[in-house]
Amino acid sequence: MTSRSGTVAEGPVDDSIGARTRTESGRRGLFYRIIAANADVPVLEFGAPFVRQWFSNVVSGDAHGLASLVTQPAAFAMVILHQTLGGCASVAEALRAAALVLEPGGTLAFAAANRIGVGIRPGMSEAAPRATPSGFRRAALRAGFTNVEIFVIRPDLEVPDYAVSTARRSARAFFDHEALSRQASGRDRWLLARAAVARLDLAVLFEPYLMIVAKR
Amino acid sequence: MREAARRALCEVGIIGDDEPMPPSILRISGNLTFLVYPPGKAFYLVKVGLENDLAREYEGLAVGHAMLPQSVPRPFKLSVHRSLPTLVAAGMPFTPLGTLDMRAPRGALRRGLAEFLGAAQASLRVEPVEPHSQRLRETFERLPPSWSFAARRYVDAIATAVDQLPAVRQHGDFSVSNLGLHGTTLVVVDWEDFGRALLPGYDVALLLCSLNDFSAARIRTNTAAGASHAWIAQLASETTGVSRALLLELLPAYFALMAAMKTECAYGSTLHARILDALAESLPDAPVLPAVES
What we know:
Chain A is built from eight helices and eight strands. By secondary structure, chain A is an alpha/beta fold. In chain A, strands 1, 2, 3, 4, 5, 6, 7 and 8 form an eight-stranded mixed sheet that branches. In chain A, strand 4, helix 5 and strand 5 form a beta-alpha-beta unit. Chain A starts with 14 loop residues before the first helix and ends with a strand. In chain B, about 50% of the residues are buried. The chains are: A alpha/beta, B alpha+beta.
């Protein structure tokens, strides 16, 4: 393991949060802070050193990886796997290891790729762990997590502008609205196909970037 | 931050204290905007203020909803949770509008826009704290010094006309992306900038800017008789009393107000630069290459 560092203040009159969100570099890691209970929770991160600007108590995973930590007592309120398996061999193994180092009620945040979505869109991230949305959900449940939420992330996992829950109502509302917006602007060659995909609740499958959030 | 949004939903009784956050669409842009979809038909908007206290938006929604309940979402509560300001409002479904709709408007859109602009002109009038020309002078003074000569001459030239206009609180971000149709009703969302501009015609000018890429020349061309946005200029004239000629004359004033507001609200340096370009294009005697300071 490596260092702990950084402090983040928070408050309604603390302009530092608003100021940071105005730049792309400042917004890196903000999604993790949004879903965390507060800025002081103990965090174990793999692949996301930039979260130090949002959390005061961050431990970075080292080369030995997540699996080497599982013999220690569960000590973290949040585990972040940012486009990495934390040195584990598979998604299932990484999720099992993450569950073991999380304290009860702790949060897993796993930024990963949708196997179908990245397959359809060549050029997307090669390094990110891949599975289907349902595959990630099954693996998280098998690893002992509850309240498994999966979000589509736009435009990418580094500086998200949108996080859309893949639950049917929210996903349909988002993709319907997007199809209608493109139609209204006259800037969509795939108008009918896009609308049909949204209507059939299939749009999530074509999205490349996912965030899995689950409670231990 | 999401927990602040969840607690805000609990506070107004939309979910129980021990229920998790329902599925949502989160927009991360300045403040956080959650569109929340609990089981059932209704959905809700929850904002978490990272950049401001959301009081202006709450007031805009309250005043707007009282003015046109079918067009403006009903705000439930402005509160503070986990040290962060939160605002809960009813969700309002709508079909988004785009440039195509604005070129060939349906009757409902035409009627809805006329109704909104007319109601706003009548209901949102306030006693002016200072003459419009004074406010404009102060606004232009915030631009780089190289603008001062052209700005002073411009404000001197329009002062009489502009000071005869009433002070009317404007929506503040009346861009096409914040408008929609629900059936035959115009829906107006995103009231974060409510009341920051008081100069009549500001909202119409911003709408035209959003449709014409912040180009004064395109606005002039596209609002001419028979052109695609002539109907908007006509509606503005009928409902706000700002004729097309006056609207075009006041474009530099509107751009200067936009530059001040959009910078302060941190809408981004790109938009700010585009607005300054538009100001340079429209302001007589403007410096050729304005120094952009954000």
